Amino acid sequence: MLVAFGQTERGLSFGYDVAIKNRTDQRAVMLYIGLFLPGPTGGRIPSVGQTIGVDCWVKAERTDGRVLTFVIDDDPNRNDPDHFRPDHHLSRLFIGQEKDATVILTPVIGTEEQWRVVEIKHKYLALLHEFTETLPSRFPDAKGFHRFESQEGDVSSILAEMKRLGEQDEQIFRHYVDDGYPLALVASLRGKSTVEFAGHVVSRGEIIRTCLGTNQERNAAVRLVRAARSRGIVLDTYTVWVAQQLSLLGLLKALFPRVAVPRSSIDELREWQDRIEPESDEPLMTMGYANGQHFYEEIPAQRLREGAALIRRGIEAICTELEILPAVAPAAPAALEEKLLEMGRYGFLDPIYVSLADNLLLVSEDLQYRVIARETHGREGAWLQAVLMVAHEAGALDRNAYADAIYGLAAQKHSHLTLTAQNLLQIVVQDSADNLEKLEVAGAFIGNETADPASHIKVTWEFFVQVWNTDLPYLRKAKATGIMLERLLGMLARLDLIKEVYLDLIRSSRDQPLLRQYLIAWARGHFLDLK
Fold first, then answer.
1. Residue 166, Cα to own-chain centre: how many angstroms?
2. For the range 186-192, what are the long-range contacts, defined as Cβ-Cβ under 8 Å and sequence gap of 24 or more?
């Protein structure tokens, strides 16, 4: 904290004191190393100049090869065996000497010794080097710092380690996709913010599992949201970020008397911002291994600054609009809860604890996080679309704004989304792009692997009827219909129902000749065998 707020010398001096007294404590060693890492809180090590003086670490070699290392320190409270005051006999011999200088030590009794100054460093730097060079042997299980040795021009050992770490990272990623771990927990294991990890999930072509998609589940969530309108809600880190990015904070405040976020969520977002904020104009260079190959990435400093600025604005909006509450963990957590607290980052379960303490409904876009809330404390939760549905029925959200919000959730691959023909039509009406990109995004949830066939056929047909009853240009109606047909036929092909259902669509369109003509023409153009 002292370093972060400009009191660098006091902070480094205090950190040095703690570290030299706790050389065998892994946390103390890691924290000392962290004092000097690049970033907003990184400290700059003072220069020592060309000659030996106070605060110098000295390495000297005797003529017989024996090596001596010591520190010249004027702090009377430092009693470490290798620290000597400036008035000590050894210090006086070396002060003022430069590298490669020869120092003659003449004991009262015994043989004269000749020492050569091999190296001079600031004591802070010397301790940092000691820790980083010996970290693997001192603490074999330490994470976050890695040391490599290689012959000149041979980077095979580094590439092999990159591959190992990349494969390990993939295993952690699969915990979310395959094993049902919550987003925030897997993000903790990867050392990322929950928002960052969610973005990675989407970039890999996966979905954010928001709910199961059943009518029973959705109706229960809507009832919970209605009941919470007299009390309020609490959001987790990822959900509040999504709500802020979709400009929904004002709506939430209008719908509920209290809208809260745990203090630890703000801390997590700030830590994310600090981590990507560049210190200079130099690009960030990273190496890794993914998809069976090594990769190198260079991120321009300007792009990093823009990302950090976006995060900062988001944090400011959240802190201005919402309640930021502390959270207190139970004194005696159950075994499952205790294990989760050990695995997850600080504050991982805070949204649940705030929900308990203030009797607020937990709103989380992470299905598995709500499962944990139920299993550990019997707290049921809801997700944003359930909130949007209640807002729409209460008149707090018109159909245009509701369609915008649904598209926003679809664009971030939140699944499952409840879509009606009216929702889809509104997205078409509002989409100014010729290729109807927004409908493409929202329509991806029609006919997916877990779709209820009857329900999705019904919604698609109702959409066709409604869109062809509008005064939209013919080509726009045709484009919208084609997009939805592609989605519907993907499902029908899996079920071997193309001929049966498509013929039924044609028969049902007798009262809409333009739609009927388009359906027949589309079938011919896509070589559907409907005989």
1. 17
2. 187/345, 188/343, 188/344, 188/345, 188/348, 189/343, 191/144
Domain identity same for 253 and 384:
yes
pLDDT in tens, 466-487: 999 999 999 999 999 999 999 9
What are 284's strand-pairing partners? 299
Task: Please check whether residue 454 is in contact with residue 501, taking contact to mean a CB–CB distance below 8 angstroms.
Answer: no
CB 478 within 8 A of CB 452: no
What b-and-e string marks burial along 194-204, b requiring 16 or more CB atoms within 10 Å of the CB?
bbbbbebbeee
Q: Which two tokens stand for residue 158?
A: 């580094």
Crossing angle, helix 474-495 and helix 453-468, to 10 degrees?
A: 170
Question: Looking at the structure, do residues 379 and 232 belong to the same domain, yes or no?
Answer: yes
106 is in which domain, residue-wise? 56-123
Q: What is the pTM of this model?
A: 0.73
Assess whether the previous peptide bond of 416 is cis (omega < 30° from 0).
yes
3-state secondary structure of 298: strand
What are the pLDDT digits (tens) for 445-465?
998 887 889 999 999 999 999
- The reply to whether 500 and 381 lie within a common domain is no
Task: Give Cα 509 distance to the centre of its chain.
Answer: 48
Residue with tokens 């590439």: 159
DSSP labels, 252-263: HHHH-S-EEEEH
Asked if 315 and 309 count as a contact pair (C-beta separation under 8 A), the reply is: no
